[in-house]
Amino acid sequence: MSTKRDATGYVAFVTYDAIIIGAGHNGLVCSYYLAKKGLKVLILEAQPNVGGAAVTDEFLPGFRNSAASYTVSLLNPKVIRDLDLARHGLKVVLRKQDNFLPGDGDYLLGGRNGLTRSEIVRHHPEDGVGYDRYMAELETVVPLIQKWLLKAPPQAGGGIGGLPTMLSLGRDLVGLTTDEIRTVHDYATKSAGDILDRHFKGDLAKALFGFDGVVGNFASPYTPGTAYVLLHHLFGEAAGVPGAWGHAIGGMGAITQAMARAAREAGVDIVLNAPAEEIIVEKGRAVGVVASGKAWRAGQVVAGVNPRLLFQRLLPAGAVPESVDRHMTNWSCESATFRMNVALSELPRFTVKPEAGDHLTAGIIMAPSLGYMDRAFTDAKQQGWSRAPIIEMLIPTSLDDGLAPKGRHVASLFCQHFRFELPGNKSWDKVRDKVADHIIATVDSHAPGFAASIIGRQIHSPLDLERRFGLIGGDIFHGKMGLDQLFSARPMIGAADYRMPLPGLYLCGSGAHPGGGVTGAPGHNAARAVLADRKPWRRRA
Description:
alpha/beta, seven-stranded mixed beta sheet, 20 strands, 34% helix
């Protein structure tokens, strides 16, 4: 390495073909694909460990759990195969039942082999037909989404260069009937509540599916666009089973540790404790990154961060047109998420189903109706957080006993809705414990004795999520998954192909298509754009 000072005044180190900002799962995926094509790749990571929000913490001596992201289904099968993550140590096991919804005096279970349908019919026999219709609609719409997970969306206003992508989108619709096209349109534009109300009468059935429309999404289930967010959580698989949800043995950090091993094996250099300070721009092009007082040079710079952080904090003034700055000021970032881990002396016992069993391996959704979810949203809009919050609890030690001492357990609590900015200029640092107590009391109302069983906890308020993981506004998806921030508009019109409006700069994080979740798709797709631009006939000035 050279220690010669370059034109920036910083000590200049070896030049790379590509530098990636952030060793989150998408940054790691992108780095692997670039390195496998022979590029010399560097990842600069602010934290002392890789993983971004997909990490496992020991939050109490002997108790470990996923710190932010917390469950497996959306990780793309091609990414899993290409990086050979099983060989690098990743093992995913299925939940024995997918979901458990405690209600008022009864419960609903969701799972494979006809369990979901039989449970829905147990509550409302007539909802069996509605379930069949609903699943038929999903079989029309979900495959269309899956076709576009590993493609860049059409470039709106992209001229003749965007024509092949537009034609590809049109070909995917060929063969659909008029009714099927209407169904696609409905799921692209309507609310989850609109869709579910036309198929089901049972509140628990609607809640089972409606939860996916608001998870990580500050919205009512009756907000237009939540039907698409619902779909976004359905396109995955776990352990090779389509639509299933699973657990990574060792927590979500096991995924990114396996990715890091694959990347390093491919030749990627990963520098930890190196927070990016500024992207170096020379002659109208991104040419490197300043991190930890050093200038790292590269032919191409790829950012795995929230678009607002990229454009408003890392780029020097005047690097992009003023219209881009204005757009990023309006880039909506708020998932209204509060994330907790708790260490437990014993398993919870739910009033409606007190015995231990497979339902404790499930995603336990405490939100028994769409009306409950709508009130949670309204409460948060008015007073900052929900009086009756939406909570999904997982107990990963029901599948992975290595996360806690023998006979003890850990649980994840993923909670909605909790505003990033609180009314009256209240500080999250002052109310976070009060809010955590409120969440625990909500769980205790379903499982008496839960609060008394807690022997330690880890709290991530929306502000904590921003400070620790760089999730601007506490947004777990790097930007709301609303109709105005999806597909060709993610992160902005004219930059949906992972190429940002500054030559040499790319986006590989969840702020790019197809959006949030531990998918690896944005990293995969951004790498394709970088590699395409290195071909002489595609290179941009």
